[in-house]
Design a protein that fits this description.
GO terms for molecular function: carbohydrate binding. InterPro entries: C-type_lectin-like (IPR001304), C-type_lectin-like/link_sf (IPR016186), C-type_lectin/snaclec_domain (IPR050111), C-type_lectin_CS (IPR018378), CD209-like_CTLD (IPR033989), CTDL_fold (IPR016187). Keywords: Disulfide bond, Lectin, Membrane, Transmembrane, Transmembrane helix. The chain is an alpha+beta fold and about 200 residues long. The chain has three domains: about 45 residues; about 25 residues; about 120 residues, Mannose-Binding Protein A, Chain A (Roll). Helices cover about 45% and strands about 15% of the residues. Strands 1, 2, 3, 4, 5, 6, 7 and 8 form an eight-stranded mixed beta sheet that branches. The longest helix has about 45 residues. The protein is elongated and about 105 Å long. The N and C termini lie far apart (about 75 Å).
């Protein structure tokens, strides 16, 4: 009796194993058939758009290559990429107006700081630098070089104060602290930072 039960169990296990393998094989065949059918349906539904899609993909690849080459060129010239902008730190010092003119000739402008992350990034240069901030148009109404008013600021304690008289230009004076801005005479000679905004690399 024991021998018969053992043989019966072994036969059942073999049948179950065959059933599992057969089910798996059928599922694989069904999956392959479905994939082929969907691909045929996709390509046959509108064959006229396929060349256009390929052209768009090739064009995108060319644009990406051009952007990467352009970015590499800027980096070779000393620009630094950060958060969709390129930054250039001068190696010499100049007045605020002459510094801005240099940036404009480079296709950029003096840096506009719009966030704490950008402020901390600029501070990493550890230099006293001109930024694109001025109240030359109206005293104590500070504006960026693009004409926008100041919304977030990092003035040092008791700044801006005009302590030296006619101090219409903004600078980073204390790069070791987050609140590092100071108002200074625009004729003071400082290092400056240019920013080229909205640089996409992909």
């Amino acid at each position: 009796m024991d021998c018969e039960n053992g043989a019966d169990t072994s036969t059942r296990k073999r049948k179950l194993c065959r059933l599992v393998v057969l089910s798996f094989a059928l599922l694989c065949i069904l999956q392959a058939t479905l994939n082929i059918s969907l691909r045929l349906a996709f390509y046959s539904s509108d064959t006229t758009t396929t060349p256009d899609c390929e052209a768009i993909i090739k064009n995108l690849t060319k644009q990406q290559d051009m952007r990467m080459n352009e970015l590499a060129c800027y980096i070779q010239q000393g620009w630094i990429y950060f958060n969709h902008s390129l930054y250039y730190v001068s190696s010499n010092k100049n007045t605020w107006n002459d510094s801005r003119e240099d940036c404009l000739q480079r296709g950029a402008d003096l840096v506009i700081i719009n966030s704490r992350e950008e402020q901390n990034f600029i501070r990493e240069f550890k230099k006293r630098t001109w930024i694109g901030l001025t109240d030359a148009e109206k005293e104590q109404t500070w504006k960026w070089v693009d004409g926008t008013t100041l919304t977030i600021s990092f003035w040092d304690t008791d700044e801006p104060n005009g302590a030296g008289g006619d101090e219409d230009c903004g600078e980073i004076y204390f790069p070791e602290t987050e609140n590092s801005w100071n108002d200074e005479s625009c004729d003071t000679k400082n290092v400056w930072i240019c920013e080229k905004k909205n640089v996409e690399i992909i």
